[in-house]
Amino acid sequence: MKEIEKAFELIEEEPIYSGFFSLSRIRLRHTLFRGGWSEPLDRELFHRGRSVAVIPYDPAVDQVVLIEQFRVGAMFVNEDPWLLEVVAGVVEEGESPEDVAHREAREEAGCQIRRLIHIAEFFPTPGGCAEKVTLFCGIVDSKGLEGIHGLDEEHEDILARVVSFDQAMEWLEQGRVQAAIPIIGLQWLALNRDRLRNI
């Protein structure tokens, strides 16, 4: 198939909300696969920016560190809005994804990452959200990490759970892990666990 030239035009962007997150209304048009241009499209765009997630793993004892916290997005579609997740945070100005991985691991789970392994970069919900996630596996010593973590100034109330790899995969299969990023992280770990245990 002949390569199709792709282009888009941002016609207008109007900020409509700025708070914990920001939202804008945009008007745009883009080229079509069948040729020509689309009609102008009106969309709302949720701005999130760059974020980082880390699945902390201790290969010496085959344990995973998962965190549990309240998530407002799950409150309206889930009976239990306390979700099992992995460490994550937003990239602030002047930070690298690696900086964020180390910072968030300390803040949310009390982890000191010994080695950081890049897994992937991806858009979780590109249909309406401007967010790109960098996902890492962080090699840690999981001893003594269970407990409550988070920053008071950010009103974080985060429970760190240290579980066996088998337990984490059982929770995944049971549907107890419902957020996309930890699902991706655990599936990657399942594929790469043997290699990590032999490092």
Automatic annotation (TrEMBL):
PROSITE patterns: NUDIX, NUDIX_BOX. It comes from Methylocaldum szegediense. CDD domains: NUDIX_ADPRase (cd24155). It is an enzyme of class 3 (hydrolase). Its EC number is 3.6.1.13. Acts on ADP-mannose and ADP-glucose as well as ADP-ribose. Prevents glycogen biosynthesis. The reaction catalyzed by this enzyme is a limiting step of the gluconeogenic process. This is ADP-ribose pyrophosphatase. Its cofactor is Mg(2+). Transmembrane segments: none annotated. Keywords: Hydrolase, Magnesium, Metal-binding. PANTHER family: ADP-RIBOSE PYROPHOSPHATASE (PTHR11839:SF5), UDP/ADP-SUGAR PYROPHOSPHATASE (PTHR11839). One of its GO terms (molecular function) is ADP-ribose diphosphatase activity.
